[in-house]
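Illustration 12: Phenylacetic acid degradation operon negative regulatory protein.
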Amino acid sequence: DLFDAQPQSLLLTIFGAFLEPRTAPVWSGGLDAILGYFGFSTAAARIALARLVQRELAERHRKGRHVYYTLTKRSVHLLEDGDERISSLGERPGEAVTWTLVWHQLPDSRKAERSNFVRQLRFHGFGHLQDGMWASPRDYVVEVTDLVHTLGIGDAVAIFRAAPSGDVAAGPLIGHLWQLDEVAERYRRFAAKYAPLTRPREMSPREAFVTCTEMLQSFRAFADIDPELPEEWATHAGARREAIAVYREALDRLREPAAAHFRELTRT
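Figure caption equivalent — predicted structure in token form:
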């Protein structure tokens, strides 16, 4: 299935798409109702929110009988970084002149930091080279350095810029780092599933919100698997272009009614 409904990730996708401004407080009762649309109980919703607080991505506030959540500066920064990654997907042509290599040694005692770090590397299209070593065909040194400082893991990470040799074929390495046939197939399935949304149709506010959120969550997953390779290596480029066109047109139709429904649910 294209849609992976993990409650914490889903909440961040919803905040990124519909919360304006991103520093605004959000009523917990509305968030409980929203996650209920996707099959989560009130208890599961509250656990997800508590874990966002534990991860320092959200803060909990009480005002009278109501509980509200606000995003932390770190969370806002991650959402802005995600906006850039998603909006630029497929729009970075050119040769892979400079690669970024990242090495880390984060033991199990720092499992939370390791998980957060690896999650962000995957989100920026890094491929797993070997234990503790990740590679990207783009110059992400500044972004990764910023991430390392944000997470406070500079004592366990090394970052390198690298230039590939023109005398060595890149094909075997590309195949080791990324499964491009699977990426292309996923793009094709996305385009086929959401193409009907590019045509006018009647939807209730709830249906528009759920459909838009599912599409956003499904599309964001491409950031984890698409390394944005140069065209000569990107065998999935055609499928990606078709999926991006469908995504943008459908989003133009769905975003405003979906955002309006979010605002209605989360105000007290």
